[in-house]
Amino acid sequence: MCMQAPSYAKHIVQRFRQEPLSQLMLDGLGRLGLSVQPFYLFEEPLPTAEPPAVDPSLLVAEVRRLGPADMPAVAAAPWRGFPESLFRERLENGNGCLGLFYGGRLAAFSWYDPNECNYEGWRFALRADEAYLFDAFTFAPWRGNGVAPYLRYRVQRLLSEQGRTRFYSVSIRTNKAAIRFKEKLGARIVGKGWVLTLFGRWRFGSKAPKARR
Length: 213
Prior knowledge:
By secondary structure, the protein is an alpha+beta fold. Helices cover 30% and strands 31% of the residues. It has a single domain, classed as Aminopeptidase, CATH 3.40.630. The protein contains six helices and ten strands, in the order H-H-E-E-H-H-E-E-E-E-E-H-E-H-E-E. An eight-stranded mixed β-sheet has the order 2-3-4-7-8-1-9-10.
């Protein structure tokens, strides 16, 4: 089904308001077959004893691990265009996903990989005390209520209970909102890299770090 013109126009306006011009330019190159992604590798700190402040209305929200039956709701996130099969494959590969539900509806989700940093630019195996955090998404009705840091806290608490005490994540350098989010978490940059993809077939990039301690 084609996206309705008014909805798409609203989406474009929101992107111009929320995203830097440099990111929009990179997205434009991507539509021409040239994908350029300069990125930072972050190490995020251990979760604090107390959760971050969250909107009181979300205190009754349910937070739980998602399974195959939840993947249609994850795939329904607007504008992303990822198929349900991708998320099912993640689960089959040992990835986990924590979801926050409000009023019976999925309000946000956040993925993690206990086996490797699976970012396409820098793939490297993780040690037994490490985890890679990725693909955190909050649906529009619940943005601005502190959902993202609260769910991040819950993911880190879950992993720390499993002996995972070092958390890595990646942010594209032009994504200022994501970088501000990491800075608020107290994350620090431990690596810088880039990846170039031509027409979805040929990929070039910098090498992943070997020593991380």
